[in-house]
Amino acid sequence: MHAYRLGGALSVDQYFARGKFPINYPRYTNPSGSRIIVDRVVRYENLTNELGDIFARLNVPFEGDLGVRKKGHFRTDRTPYQLVFTPKQRQMVERVFAREIQLHGYRFEQTANG
After folding, report:
1. Domain ranges of the chain
2. In angstroms, rounded to a whole number, what is the distance separating the alpha carbons of residues 33 and 40?
3. For residue 67, what is the DSSP state?
4. Nearest to 102 by CA among 14, 46, 13, 29
5. Quick one: which of 58, 60, 64, 107 has its CA closest to 82?
6. E strand or H helix at 50
7. Cα separation values, 52 from 4, 42, 45, 72, Å
């Protein structure tokens, strides 16, 4: 999305060099960032299904669409992320997002090629 805002000219390396990362865990964890303190954190990769569950629980109508475009149109190349990052970039992601990776049990999956 940052590349889009800059006219599509932002490479992954340039994004990392800027050092402006979407660190969100302070919004939903205790002050030390060690424990999730909200009822639920919705994973973006399951957004529609999880929102459907939440809206059903709240008795709010939801037709499975937020009426806005997903971020998917920002990255039209569907190469698996494991093949997009260099080892150095992967280390950067693991370092910068370590807390969120740990809190949510994320990990870099291996591909058939790697």
Report:
1. 2-104
2. 15
3. S
4. 29
5. 107
6. helix 47-57
7. 29, 11, 14, 19
